[in-house]
Every structure is written in structure tokens, then in C-alpha cells.
Amino acid sequence: MSSKAMTSGTRLRALAERRLTSARVMRDLATRQSDLLAAIDAAGRGEIETDAVESVLESHLAARAECLASMTSCDDEWAAAATTLHEMDALDRDAIQRISAEIGGILAELTTSDATFATELSARRRAAGAEIARADGSRAAHRAYAPQTQAPRFTDRRG
Q1: Sign of CA dihedral 130, 125, 119, 47
Q2: Backbone angles phi, psi at 48, to 5 degrees
Q3: Which residues contact 93 (CB under 8 A, 6 or more apart)?
Q4: Is 72 helix (H, G, I), strand (E, B) or coil?
């Protein structure tokens, strides 16, 4: 085994561990999605400020984007080091494969939870849209049945 393969193995293992850490953080963030949905519902009922929920949602999405950026920032180095995988020490190779399998499992979990979260967000958006349309429709009906003549806004002393 060449020293290059040993160095590549060590580096690839470190990159795999970094990606695994990011994937675990993303999984932890996904476990908080039900809390986000509950906050969105509370805002819809007027229990908390909408701006606060938007801020939390933006923070959640920014944290996920940061994890993804961390995972993909080393793609070129990962691809270069992976070309020497067959030359690597068996311990490094086994560790890298174990870590990669765990990352794959986490990403599969995230795919499922993201689909559920997106469905729930869409349902809430549709419900909010229907509520807005209902409120706008009520206003239009009120205007339609309101008296057509304008009452004078000001009257003199005689009435």
C-alpha cells in the first residue's frame, strides 16, 4: 500500500465523518418539524405572531442549507480520494463504507420526512388560502348588500 493511499484513506474517512455529522444534524432538525407545524397552526389561530413563526421557519431552512453546503463543499476532494478506495487499508475502507451506509440511511429518512413536511406545509397553505378567500368573499357579499346611497357624513344643526 502506498503512502498516498494511506493519506487518501485517512482524508476520505475524515470527509465521510464530516458528512455524517452534517447528516445527523439534518436528522435532528427534521425531528423538530412537528414543532414548526404546531407553531404555524398557533399563528393561524392568532396565538403567536406570524413574524415569529416565519423567523423560526427561515432559521430552520437556513440551518438545513448550511448542513447541505457542508456536505457538498468537499465533493471534488471526495471524488478524487475515492478513486484510490481499492488501494486503501481495509480498516479505512470498511469505516468509510459503514459511514456511507449510515449517511444513506439518514438521507432516506430525510427524504420521507421532507415529503411529509412539504405535504403538511402545502395543506396549511391551502387552508390559509381558503380562509382568506372566505374572508374576502364575506366582504364582497357585505358590499353587495350594503345600501347603495351614501348617507351624509356631516349634518348641520338643523339635521
Answers
A1: negative
A2: -135, 160
A3: 9, 85
A4: helix
Cell of 83: 478513486
Average pLDDT in the chain: 83
Q: Residue ranges of the domains in the chain? A: 3-143
| CA 70 – CA 25 distance, rounded (Å) | 11
First to last CA, the chain: 106
* Whether the Cβ atoms of residue 68 and residue 34 lie closer than 8 Å to each other: no
How far is it, in rounded angstroms, from Cα 30 to Cα 33? 5
Query: Do 77 and 15 touch, CB atoms closer than 8 A?
Result: yes
- Contact between 4 and 52 (Cβ < 8 Å): no
| Distance of alpha carbon 152 from alpha carbon 144, whole angstroms | 20
Q: What is the pTM of this model?
A: 0.72
Q: Hey, what's the cell of 93? A: 475502507
Residue 107 has pLDDT above 70, yes or no: yes
